[in-house]
Amino acid sequence: MNEPPKKFPNYEDLLALPEGTRAEIINGQIETSTRNVCDGSIH
């Protein structure tokens, strides 16, 4: 079977990710990692 052409991610796809997610497009794929958000309190 023929596979449909691969859709490469774009900036709109990055904006659609949840807030606090660090993302970048590498080799045509979105690579993500979460950021630790500091609320200013001392632990």
What does this molecule look like?
- The chain is an alpha+beta fold.
- The chain has one domain.
- 12% of the residues lie in helices and 28% in strands.
- The protein contains 1 helix and 2 strands; from the N terminus they run αββ.
- A two-stranded antiparallel sheet has the order 1-2.
- The chain is elongated and about 55 Å long.
- The termini are far apart.
- The model has no long low-confidence stretch (mean pLDDT 83).
Q: What attributes characterize this protein structure?
A:
2 strands; two-stranded antiparallel sheet; 43 residues; alpha+beta
Task: Give the oligomeric state.
Answer: single chain
Structural class: alpha+beta
Poorly predicted regions: none
Q: Output the radius of gyration.
A: 16 Å
What percent of residues are in strands?
Answer: 25-35%
Indicate the overall shape: elongated
Number of structural domains: 1
Number of strands: 2
Q: Kindly state the mean pLDDT as a whole number?
A: 83
Distance between the termini: 56 Å
Total helical segments: 1
Give the strand line-up of the largest sheet.
1-2
Percent helix: 10-25%
